[in-house]
Amino acid sequence: MEKAKPIGVFDSGIGGLTVVRKLSSTLPNENIVYFGDTARVPYGSKSNETVIEYSIQNTKFLIEKNVKAVVVACNTASSVAIPELRKRFSIPIIEMINPGATAALKATRNNKIGVIGTRATINNKAYSKEIKKFNENVEVFEVACPLFVPLAEEGWIDHKATYEIAEEYLKPFKEFGIDTLVLGCTHYPILAKVIQEVIGDDVMLIDSGVASSEIVRAEIDRIGLTTNSNTLGNQNFYVSDLPIKFKEIAELFLGREIKNVQKVDVEHLVSLG
Amino acid sequence: MEKAKPIGVFDSGIGGLTVVRKLSSTLPNENIVYFGDTARVPYGSKSNETVIEYSIQNTKFLIEKNVKAVVVACNTASSVAIPELRKRFSIPIIEMINPGATAALKATRNNKIGVIGTRATINNKAYSKEIKKFNENVEVFEVACPLFVPLAEEGWIDHKATYEIAEEYLKPFKEFGIDTLVLGCTHYPILAKVIQEVIGDDVMLIDSGVASSEIVRAEIDRIGLTTNSNTLGNQNFYVSDLPIKFKEIAELFLGREIKNVQKVDVEHLVSLG
Predict the structure, then answer these.
(1) Are A40 and A267 in contact (CB under 8 A)?
(2) Domains, in order of start, for chain A
(3) Exposure of A108 by Cβ count < 10 A (0-12 exposed, 13-18 middle, 19+ buried)?
(4) What is residue A94's predicted lDDT score, i.e. its pLDDT?
(5) SS (H, E, C) A169-215
(6) Rounded distance, CA B63 to CA B69, Å?
(7) How high is the pLDDT of residue A91?
(8) B67 in the Ramachandran plot: left (φ > 0), alpha (ψ -120 to 50) or beta?
(9) How far apart are CA A210 and CA A183, in angstroms?
(10) B46 pLDDT band (50/70/90 cuts)?
(11) What is the pLDDT of residues B160-207, one digit of tens each?
(12) Is A146 within 8 Å of chain B by CB?
């Protein structure tokens, strides 16, 4: 029965659905419980203290749902809350930064890696610290792209304005001459087409969601809790708010129809803190 | 002493600082207490239920600070929470929609009024309902502009991409032939230059913050609590989070240096609920 327990995934909102998309293609038989903190989104512009507090509440909520592991499908939370979460909880906590950093190190040929993310992720230098742990000679260039999240949520995935904004944000990387670019926010895979066109085909894009799904596979195997099931896993979605156009936007991110969505009261989350 | 009490102003974040800017130019001797709910911003993409709950908490917080009136400097909260706030609290509650609607009705010559705002404000048809209460023959055209808030907060007040996005959002108004456009979100005055250029000089822009400041003047006069002071009023600012670049962005909105900023715990707000 322990093996049938779901994998928990949380994010500040809907961005983590791009991670669920990759996770369910890597581990199609696993059950998944997703929590999106849509009442308190975005985390990327909030202080570290607040993000840690929310992350603890979200993890406790998933543990209430009896999960066997928790995926922090939010780069901002990954960049500030992981030590605190691992101190408090004994189940595996899988985050986005190390898998993305490791994948970038494998991909680079010229040792010049770019990272894009929210202000909080970039300000914390989460990726450059992680990359330099493994190789001090790699140069890491980090740029915050605050407008990419609202553009993705507006569904402007190939709008002229999206190209303009991408040109502006990505300009410094062309000077740096990077050959690898980490999409350091779970919203950004939605804009991958524009980003790839603007940065050029010579630059390899790294999706932390893909990289972290492999770590999830290894971690549940390590604790002996890989499912025995041969059928497609169930997926249940919880959100702290059901905003206008939620279904439409969520389906753009998840890549298919979203079902089994329930609302959770913020009071309940706060009471868990 | 009652007359020296401050006027309370709240918003989901920093947008309401454009209202404080107008309020302090209309009523320079009044003390002001501002609360920006930066830990839970934005309200514009959240459900009505959540916005009402947060608005009650924010009003209770300002009442703890001993205010004589509350300005709801947030169009989203104004469009959904006012009946509930007026039911629960006896001090004057001043909102954005009626003042903006009334100013637009005075300005229009051809009875074709445009309104721009967040998804929540537009979805609730807040402005068209209010305008039609006074004149059923006026045609009101409403368009949600979700990217204007992050653009204003990024400080891209005359960037090429901002013009592109404004062109896209404002296109329908040109077909409608409006002569008056309500800036139905307190962030939008920051982008007024771009909006005016794109929509054309023939269209009059209505800033609800200006219109509502006159209502505040009338309301505190009505209850006999206009200050006797002849010196410049104090201003105190409270926020539920102090995000990265807060000071820089807040000063763009307030139009001058921001001082006396204190952080309030979200737990405290929730406990007031």
Answers:
(1) no
(2) 2-95+210-272 (3.40.50.1860), 97-208 (3.40.50.1860)
(3) buried
(4) 98
(5) HHHHHHHHCCCEEEECCCCHHHHHHHHHHHHCCCCEEEEHHHHHHHH
(6) 9
(7) 97
(8) beta
(9) 11
(10) confident
(11) 999 999 999 999 999 999 999 999 999 999 999 999 999 999 999 999
(12) yes
Rg (CA), chain B: 18
- Give me the mean pLDDT over the A117-134 stretch: 92
Q: b/e per residue, A227-244, with b = 16+ CB within 10 A? A: beeeeebebebbbbbbbb
pLDDT at A217 > cutoff 90 = yes
Nearest CA in chain A to B39: A46
Torsion sign over Cα A241, A242, A247, A252: negative
CA A18 to mean position of chain CA atoms? 7
Clarify whether B74 is annotated catalytic: yes
Question: Whats the size of chain A, residue-wise?
Answer: 273
What are B249's two structure tokens?
A: 């962005």
Structure token digits, residue B189: 């005055």
**Annotated catalytic residue within B9, B14, B17, B74:** B74
Determine the residue of chain A that is closest to B145 in CA distance. A154
Pairing of strands A69-72, A7-11: parallel
State how far the Cα of A271 lies from the Cα of B231, in Å rounded to an integer: 45
